Amino acid sequence: MKTNVSASRCFIKAALLFSLVFLMSNLFLAQGNNIHTFATSQTNAVSALCLGCSIQNPQNAVGNDPTNYSSLKMGIGLLGKVEQTLIFPTASLQKLAIHIGTGNGELTAALLSAATIETMNGNVSNGDSRIIDSQILTINTWPDNNGLIQFRPTKPYDRVKISLNAGVLSLNRELRIYEAKQSAFVIPCATLPADPFLYYAFNGNLEESINPNSLKTLSGNRPPTFQDSLVCKKALTTDIVGNELQDQYPHINYNQLFPEKTISFWASTRNYLRVTVGETKIMVYDTLTITQPGTNDKLVKIFAPDFFIPLHHYTVTVIPKAPSPAEIALCEQTPSNDYCSQAIGSTISLYIDGDLASSKTFLGRIPNLNFSIASGLFGSKIDELLVYNEALPATVIKELACSYHILQNCSPGSPTPSVSVLKATPTEELFTVSPNPTTGQITLDGNILLLNADISIRNTSGLEVFQSKLTSKTFNLPPTLPEGMYILTLQTKDKKVYSRKIILTR
Fold first, then answer.
1. CA dihedral 337, 341, 347, 351 (to 10 degrees)
2. Which of 171, 198, 356, 435 has its CA 20 to 30 A from that of 265?
């Protein structure tokens, strides 16, 4: 009897714990969450000219276990090469991160001067091979002389190749690869580029959603109002004249936090709407301008002369202009000048609906300003305000704008996180999944052979959570499946494979 009672109590505790975890994960996803897709398979090769070269435990680089690893070991061949290719479920533009180490000896960027990395789409290289250097490598992210390679590819990719070339003997002839992952920032209605610094969803409040208890919650001199169904859930709107919202601590130096940055948001307006992040002031008006304080220069995009500007997606990137060595030397001749190495200007680019509208380089030192949103006459609206502490590539900006599935200028071939196509899929073949996001019912369509195809659905960790033989174009996911992003893979009777990302909401 005691055994049964104890087992029953354990079951109840486990059920409560599962419910709590499920509730917290859904709550977190509702606000926005960085999710990760890990490599699910690999290939490797060793040059025949490399005596003593090898790769040990290659399968350990697959999956999300950071405690084991594959080992790329160099021998004495002068022309030798050891390489490993890690393969993801689908092609995407998501941010890439690879956890590496040396196993023995200190890890530095200089030690990796003969190690390269490149992305691929299928078996075709994206032409972005580069040495693993300090621009993409962070040391000591983990203990034991480990590091993290991070960058955003500019072309869709479904695999990454790491190569160790002859001449890297200072690595003690070993490079460890622990794991590789793609990252995205998922909200209920879109999948966005990973790792935003600030995210204001405006879903009925002015909180910064990544860290709602931070100092970056906005406040104003009048209560704000919110509107349903502008872009994603609620949006901030203005029913009063001249309201301005600011962060609660305007002394925060946003320029020091991210001198290079990307600002994006949706907006429609009557009269004007102004967004200020650090030195970058964005004004949506009859014309749209971006100005740098202290100068008369502007980026201007002329709209049609309507009193009401329709809904558009705006993105602004800021890339600081560093002084040259000669300019630094000249600056240092001035006594008590502590700003010689700081940026002397910036290149600001404006994208409207994901397309580049204008770009200009401003000169002059940048003052420190706060974070604020101000509006003019009745009816100005803003939604989905994101700030990244980096300048996103143009292809990623286009993906960001198209991810909400609102714009009309997103062609079927435009890469978006929710519709990722494997390189092996011919462009003339069409395979669609709808609706996406879905509440559980999915309809497949296209000009491919669907009858009797095999369906498999995996979570972002690569675990299969559903599989079935397709007998109808429409089917239902299990009601016990939690919200989140999944990979749907379809294999036709003629063995062709198609994959799509789907977002499940309940």
1. -110
2. 435
The residue type found at 500 is: R
* Burial classification of residue 122, based on how many CB atoms lie within 10 Å of its CB (0-12 exposed, 13-18 middle, 19 or more buried): middle
| C-alpha distances out from residue 243 to 35, 186, 257, 282, 375, Å | 36, 31, 26, 16, 6
Is 82 within 8 Å of 164 (Cβ atoms)? Answer: yes
Residue 154 CB contacts under 8 Å (≥ 6 apart), including other chains: 93, 126, 128, 393, 394, 395, 396
Residue at 112: amino acid letter? L
Residue 181 CA to residue 151 CA, distance in Å, equals 11
Per DSSP, 52 falls in state: T
Token code pair at residue 124: 């075709």
Contact criterion met (CB below 8 Å) for 253 and 275: no
> Which residue(s) pair with 55 in the sheet?
72
CA distance 378 to 394: 33
Q: In whole angstroms, what is the distance from residue 21 CA to residue 27 CA?
A: 10
Which among 18, 140, 37, 161 is positioned nearest to 91, based on CA atoms?
Answer: 37
pLDDT in tens, 145-193: 788 999 999 999 999 999 987 655 444 567 899 999 999 999 988 999 9
Inter-residue contact 237 to 381 (CB < 8 Å): yes
Q: Cα–Cα distance between 275 and 296 in angstroms, integer?
A: 18
Give one DSSP letter per residue of 142-196, joined into a string. Answer: STTTEEEEEE--SS-EEEEEEEEETT-GGGTTEEEEEEEEEEEEEETTEEEES--
First to last CA, the chain: 40
Q: Give the residue among 75, 82, 87, 76 at the shortest CA–CA distance from 55.
A: 82
Q: What is the pLDDT of residues 471-498, one digit of tens each?
A: 888 888 988 898 888 888 888 887 777 8
pLDDT at residue 136 tops 70: yes
Structure tokens at 96: 């890439």
The Cα 28–Cα 282 span in angstroms is: 30
